[in-house]
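User: Quick sanity check before I run a bigger batch. Here is a single chain. Can you write out its predicted 3D structure?
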Amino acid sequence: MADIIQLLPDHVANQIAAGEVVQRPASVVKELLENAIDAGAAHISLIAKDAGKTLIQVVDNGKGMSATDARLSFERHATSKIKSADDLFSLNTKGFRGEALASIAAIAHVDLKTKQDQDDLGTHIVIEGSTIKDQDLVVTPQGTSLSVKHLFFNIPARRNFLKSDAVEIRHIIDEFQRVALAHPSIAFVMMHNGSESFNLPVSNYRQRVVNIFGSKTNEKLVPVEEDTEVLKISGFVGKPEFAKRSKSEQFFFVNNRFIKSPYLNHAVNAAYEGLIKDGSHPSYYLNLKVDPKSIDINIHPTKTEIKFDDEHTLYAILRSAIKHSLGQFNIAPVLDFDHDPNLDTPYNFEGKSSVTPQVEVNRDFNPFKDEVMSTSTPRPAGQHINFKKEVPSNWESLYVGVESKGTRQESDFSEVQFESEPESQELFESGSSAFDVGQSTYQLHNKYVVSSIKSGVLFIDQNRAHRRVLYEKMLSHITVQQAVSQQLLFPLQLHFSASEIEILQTLKQDLEHTGFVFSKFEDESIEITGTPINVSESEVSIVLEQLISDMQQDIPDVNFSATDMLAKSMAKSMAIKGGQSLSSVEQEHLVNSLFACKEPNVSPEQKTTFITMTLDELDRKFITF
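Assistant: Done. Predicted structure follows.
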């Protein structure tokens, strides 16, 4: 039998490795930015076109590479970061596997220009699909400029799986923010399609957070500092009242490397227990310093997941440090009464001794001096007290309108009204129905609407049903573009981060079709002058935050309509919730509106809106076997 095992060609092996390292343009951005940081750069520029599909270029002023290193850097498992397996447990750099540039070069056109400080000329290398097309000397400034063009040009199937430009640029921004947050001592610039998205100068950590997420973030931050032998914590957490519906502003950095850790995230949520509402997520930007020998970062291709030696200790320290910071800055609730400033001593009276108030009494005052005889006056012995009062002279006026006994008529008790206490609802009322007279629906536990039908009983989930009604109404408004708006008396100004503003910018036209009216769209804020008729002013921020959260978590791709996501999100935030009491008119309106929909059977999330129970099913439940 012939041998069937064979070695893969280098270009095929590189493409397989690229599938692990390069999942989308944002993966290339991450690898190139980390390489620039390892090169000791003080200023890094990121340039992208068409969300990275056409061009991703990273320019840094680091130490650069020699001609030999530049050529060797595109070979598999070629790295300057480690020399033995033991070095994997004491890493202080970003990249170490030596797979990034080789994987990128296998699936894209790569153009590299690099020069060291002591060299007069630099090196220019052009690679297409792991094949080196050209290598020459070139005049270039110190540092490295690496351009990645036409990503996945030789793997059309992978290119077809990429999402829309709006989705891919959002992922690029996420990676850019993670790297920039971890290194506030480095200046970063990001350009997309010729326009500047970020310009972050060298600053401290607090200012870097504010520069990325907007000036309004500064008032939301609470500093966290803790230094122990096991763990050193520094950074900031958000105040509980500014908790968001999404997890977009949650960052853990371990030794300046962004990581994802559900276990540590649970520690942060435990510190906020009782301070934020269910479904809300606190913001945090925390730097953790640990011994590199106590962690293993080589467990995931993208190096975003690491393994700790003693997670339980880190959990306890992190939770306690955050609770201490929230309490230290008077964020956590305390058992105390509200302070009334009216009880404070005025400045004019400070230092003065207290004076006992004087009470003056009129000893000659006698409230009974008009009585015929006062009990306080002495009387002669043997004289009796006359308790009879003088009869007033106008006593006849007391009986005006009263007829004499002989001519008095019997009273007509048909017009007499009696006071009575309201009757309580009995468990079994008279009659066979628990509904009011003329009422066709009934609300059960403020969650389900019950209605009788010819074949039995109908149970409707009021939240899901209302979502379906609002969803189809929103889709109709967006499609027809004839939504009605209600004008606000005063413009409403809301503040968001740059990435959130970009999401709203892409949805602006569809939001206007639902009834929103925007007067300003700035870098960190928007101004609203009109809202849909069924959205109150206090609910506007809730609706938009929910929309941003849904767009970040369930991002629509090219084949999926953003309009559908917008309608779903607005229906979810505006629908009546379980536990909300409805009047009989509201119940009937909900039932009629539901069955007027095109698909009343399911909610927008494809969950059942109602169930029916026939009389036969009810009868079978009472059958005794």
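The longest strand covers residues 485-495.

User: Great, the batch can go ahead then.
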